[in-house]
Amino acid sequence: MKVIIRKTSEEASLWAAHYIADRIREKAAVSDKPFILGLPTGSTPIGTYKELIRMYEAGEISFKNVITFNMDEYVGLPESHPESYHSFMHTNFFDHVDVPAQNIHILNGNAPDLDAECAAYEAAIAQTDGIDLFLGGVGEDGHIAFNEPFSALNSRTRVVTLTHDTRVVNSRFFDNDFNQVPKQAMTVGVATICSAKEVLILGFGPKKAAAIKAGVEGPYTHCITLSALQCHEHGLVVVDEAAASQLSAETVSYFQAVEEAEGE
Q: Which of 6, 48, 55, 252 is 20 to 30 A removed from 178 (C-alpha atoms)?
């Protein structure tokens, strides 16, 4: 695991966007194979998406040879609903870049057989050479995707029941009405995420500080699914200073020294 700290969420979002674009260009320079990119929803990645869109519009990056797999989707919410993750992704990213429609994969929360849908999603990922980079965000309780606390660290794509706290947090997207938030979702598993060649998790603001501290400095545990990145050879946690505020001075100094040394 490596931790990248930037002063603001805006700076951290820009860093993440340029890191992703660099990885896409690097693979394109040596291979004709598509870049396989895992993507999240929520407010945290919006700044990164905006910068990737800007880079695309400026001719700095193309997504024509990119295949995407999204992390999750609500169960029972129509795809046309403004808060479905299908709608979110098209509004905030896909409608503004050149990812071919056939290359976009998002779980179908209205599939007649949800378990079969989850199995098919894992199979579709397996048919690629593996996800090159999985982008994600961390929840206030340390979860990644919808892998709530006590999710198995070897979990794969499945249907999950959302915790009361997660539904409360997400109610801000549903007119602050907790009862409108679906009770279930479909999500890639912790092992699905960690099977990617690289994992980049974003965490911004003081409300994420406790989760960042637990995931980076705490034990490897299913209580904090972010902690799974501790065992990932190329796990990145990208945070602003507010989210890093509970990390020890020694931790911050270490990762800053590593970044400085690698930049020399």
A: 48
CATH code that applies to domain 2-263: 3.40.50.1360
CB 1 within 8 A of CB 247: no
**Which amino acid, one-letter code, is at 118?**
C
Instruction: List active site positions.
Output: 72, 141, 143, 148
Task: Provide the token pair at 68.
Answer: 């995407």
Is the Cα dihedral 28, 264, 209, 218 positive or negative? positive
pLDDT tens for each residue of 105-135? 999 999 999 999 999 999 999 999 999 999 9
| Coarse DSSP helix, strand, coil percentages of the chain, rounded to the nearest 5 percent | 45, 20, 40
CB 203 within 8 A of CB 138: yes
Q: In which residue are the tokens 């706290």 written?
A: 165
- C-alpha to C-alpha distance for 45 and 31, rounded to whole angstroms: 27
Which residues are within 8 A (CB) of 149 and not within 5 positions of it... i.e. 6 or more apart? Answer: 141, 142, 143, 163, 222, 223, 224, 225
Q: Write the pLDDT tens digit of every residue in 27-83.
A: 999 999 999 999 999 999 999 999 999 999 999 999 999 999 999 999 999 999 999
**Closest CA relative to residue 20, chosen from 143, 212, 196, 233:** 196
Task: Look up residue 221 and give its DSSP letter.
Answer: B
**How are beta strands 133-137 and 158-161 bridged, if at all?**
unpaired
Q: Measured between alpha carbons, how far is 33 from 46 in angstroms, rounded to an integer? A: 27
